[in-house]
Amino acid sequence: MTTLTVNEYEGDNRAAALKVLEHIEEVEYDYTARDEERARRRRERISQMKRQKERQLRMRRLAVPLLLMVVACIMIITAGVKAVIGKHTAKEEQIVQNLPLEQLPETGQETGKKQNRKTGTDSGKEGMFGLKADMNIACADITASFLEIREDQLAFIAEAQQLQTLGGKNDEPVLTAQADENTIGSIGDCVSENIVFIDVEGGRILAQKDAHTRISPASMTKILTVLVAAEHITNADDTFEITIDITDYSFSHRCSNVGFEVGERVTVRDMFYGTILPSGADAAVGLAKYVSGSQEEFVKLMNEKLEELGLSETSHFTNCVGIYDDNHYSTVYDMAVIMKAAYDNPFCREILSRHIYTTTPTAQHPDGISLSNLFLRRIEDRDTHGEVLCAKTGFVDQSGNCAASLSIGNDGKLYICVSAHSTSSGRCMRDHIAFYQYFLP
Q1: H or E stretch at 231
Q2: Long-range contacts of 33-40 (CB under 8 A, 24+ apart)
Q3: Deepest of 89, 143, 246, 301, by most Cβ within 10 A of its Cβ?
């Protein structure tokens, strides 16, 4: 490196050297200030995510006692009303039975009541002076009111159960985005054959190229895997034993793995991180079996989620890993919708945004296993005019290198980029960077 010494110059040369030195110092200051600003924004976002998680945990702690109190109150009120109604009904029937026959009204139905009294039967439904009919009407109103209360109670219970799942089941609207006259096809030297770039909050497709063409989603599939698992699991600290059929499945399909061993008891949390960061098939299948007992049953839940997201006509999954299958397909636009749904789940957002993670120590791995999201680690030092928060990559021969990423721009808005059929993992990442730089301020 050449060191500029101003004292070596005199006259005009000295003035020029001073200007060059000032320019160098300004450039260095600009780079330093920008790095510090990016680091500050990253710390703020991490702090915000932690606060959201703490609020959610407080809600979970409050939900269960509140639910029990509401259920107990409703049961007490219901029992009290039933007792009052039963007491009035029994009293009325006793009065009717004790009246002389000649005192009963001579209506058509009450004549039948007299006959019934003589024969010992009771086919009529009205009591003395229609009292029972009136009571039935009143009871019907009360019953209807309690049915409504019961419906509200069941809805509350369902909501409480959702809060107990990891991250809850959010009420955010499903992402929908449309192209307009300003939507472009591609930019620069982008090599990905399928790509979509979406302004999430504006609901606009800023760029698309064969965005609705069927592709094999490869390991981007695992975004839906963790989302469905999170919506059906209540305890991330529970443990699960890795079985030989899980490791055999992963080995026979030549999948990437976390490195769990047969007989190893791993936490559910570790399987979540293992599914995303190293794209571990052993972790993904472990989650599926933990939730549903088998991968086949879990895949049914995945396709139900696709239907809930409005994607069942253009996406269908046959496994939770992303292994190629003729009936395992999606589109880059659909994967953007799935990424947004996963981002809206706080637990999944935490998994998809984690750069480095170490699994819980076990007998087989006393120091745990170090995991990395290579896409996030490689892109974090690139200028994307914002910060890429979440990402998941994938690869199969049929769709090449692909990736889904979500970023918050310098303007504070969310953007999603999904691409497929790139020539390498590096080119795939550079395509994402190029689109972020092109569209984000």
Answers
A1: none
A2: 38/387
A3: 246
Residues 233-262: what's their mean pLDDT? 96
Mean pLDDT of 427-435: 97
Of 140, 190, 118, 146, the residue nearest 421 (C-alpha): 190
In 186-290, at which residue ranges do the beta strands (DSSP E only) sit? 194-199, 204-209, 239-241, 265-267
* 222 is annotated as an active-site residue: yes
Instruction: Dump pLDDT digits (tens) for 46-92.
Output: 667 667 667 766 776 776 677 778 777 888 887 777 776 666 666 55
Task: Kindly provide the b/e burial profile for residues 363-380, where b requires at least 16 CB atoms within 10 angstroms of the residue's own CB.
Answer: eebeeebebebebbeebe
Helices (H) and strands (E) in the chain, counts: 12, 10
Residues 6+ positions from 263 with CB-CB distance below 8 Å: 241, 242, 364
252 is catalytic: no
pLDDT value at 102 more than 70: no
Q: Catalytic annotation on 279?
A: yes
Q: Does the pLDDT value for residue 256 go beyond 70?
A: yes
Give me the torsion for CA of 208, 210, 214, 217, rounded to 10°. Answer: -50
Q: Is the four-CA dihedral 192, 404, 307, 292 of positive or negative sign?
A: positive
Q: Which of 279, 405, 419, 425 is catalytic?
A: 279
Residue 204 forms beta bridges with which residues?
178, 199
**Which residue, chain included where needed, has tokens 């889904």?**
404
Closest CA to 386 of 205, 191, 199: 199
Does position 257 have pLDDT exceeding 80, yes or no? yes
Catalytic site residue from 209, 222, 289, 305: 222
Domain spans, the chain: 1-110+123-164, 178-439
Q: Which of 132, 192, 209, 219 is catalytic?
A: 219
Q: Over the chain, what is the mean pLDDT?
A: 83
For 412: left if phi > 0, alpha if psi spans -120 to 50, otherwise beta; the answer is: left
User: In the CATH scheme, what architecture does the domain 178-439 have?
Assistant: 3-Layer(aba) Sandwich (3.40)
- Percent of the chain residues past pLDDT 90, beyond the cut: 60
